[in-house]
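Sat 14:20. Reprocessing the chain from the morning session after the first attempt stalled halfway. Input below, unchanged.
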Amino acid sequence: MSRHPWIVLLVMTLLGHATLVLAQEVSITSPASGSTVRGLVKIQGVKPDPESGWMSFKLEGPGQKDEFVAAVIKPYIWVWDTTARDQDKRLFPDGMYTIRAVAQSPAGAAIGETSIQVTVANNLGPGEAPSSVRLKVNYTRGHEYKYDVEGSRVVSLKEPNPFLQPLVDQFTGVLEALYVDTSLTTSSGGPALLRKRLVEGWTRWGREKPKNVSGVGKSFIQVLTAEGRVEVKRTGDPLLELGSLTLELPDRPLRVGDTWSSDLWLLLDPADDKRHHVRAQHKLDGFQWYSGIKTARIVSKFEAKDVDLLVPGQGSSWRVVTDYEGTRYSYFAYEAGRFVGIEDEINHEYEAYMAQATGGMSMSMGMSGMEAGMPGMEPGMPGMPGVPEVPGMMPGGPGGGMPGMMPGGGPGGGMPGMMPGGGPGGGMPGMMPGGPGGGMPGMMPGGPGGGMPGMMPGGGPGGGMPGMMPGGGPGGGMPGMMPGGGPGGGMPGMMPGGGPGGGMPGMMPGGAGGMGGGSTMPAKIEAKGTVTIKVTEVS
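Finished this time. Tokens:
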């Protein structure tokens, strides 16, 4: 027992008072408790020691059970996207939510918390939404609309491979852009003439520096019909592809749940410089607030197979044939008569050749002191000829040879100290001659390429393990398997290496050099691309 219990009591009292003070100083300044929120909501907290530690936010509501959603440092702001989706499911349905803020010390200890309640109301309520609506584009001369564009591509391997994953990561990246629409005419139920100007735009893949997208700083004159089709004013005029991603609207009134089929234009990939056309199935899914504007929410589904696509990455590109399926959420301001936002999610499946992606990266990377590549690559070893050979493979020059296998080229004879086997290849003495190619005596001759006697001949000058398929031409090959191919050679028993650059054996033929000269075994790729276009300012 302490000799000074009053000191312990004083310390405990002070600590309790300090904790109470800290807890009282934790607050949420925005939004106000009891308010109704929609769209993007800025949540800002205050903690007693603002220069250190952090603050975490948790949500509880429909489908949420006090779940952690963010950890932030000074100024302790988190932007809550109440319209966020996971595929077709809205993550934060309309309803009442509790927002909890917990202040943390630098060591991670909770030093106080607070909470507020808000109501999420993105859908138009009773009396706000029309019973039916006719969607038609309608622009007024002189009006200007600014649109932000954000895109991303996330690439992954269907089957994990630590060697290939760093190459795949070079194809993950982002798109950002800003363009402005200016109405040059009034629609009045007909087409509108628009000037579209791409103010800025760039992409970045892997770790490369951002690159401008095509058309930055330029203006494009385009026609937008009342049904939502974007066309050029004159044949041959350029089109701002990025700003022409619409869908064709039906010429009839719609109620929630009504469907129709029509054309839709999209970017298959955030790096695409040309829009693609696809037939899509659409549904009027409901009415909601979007950027403070009353909109009709349209959900579109589409898919296609065997579509050619160029996929740029860090320093190189994949040319692929993709199967894809996707969903678009379109937000149409039915009172104003224009699209104010689209959100595309597209899932791809295709095969890509990793060496093609690297632009001819040498396999010597990471192999210390290896200046040359693997055989059949560049610079590599120039195939098998010219190096001493294992008998039964390609000839090594005018040397001898183990009897019963391929002759060395000159008077190699038999195994020394024994009688010649009969022919120039010799044979084991005292038995039947091996024949011209030599062979184990008393058995069938090995044939001109040599072979184990009593089995099939080894084949031509490439030799082969006897009794199996011949080794092939001058590129040689492991005997009993498929021939190695041309002068580039290839790993035997697989596809030939190809031209002078060879290729990684057993894969597609290479070109002049590099890892397979630009082609190797295909890897199965899954890629998710998103493109979001959202109006930010109307004047």
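The longest strand covers residues 293-312.
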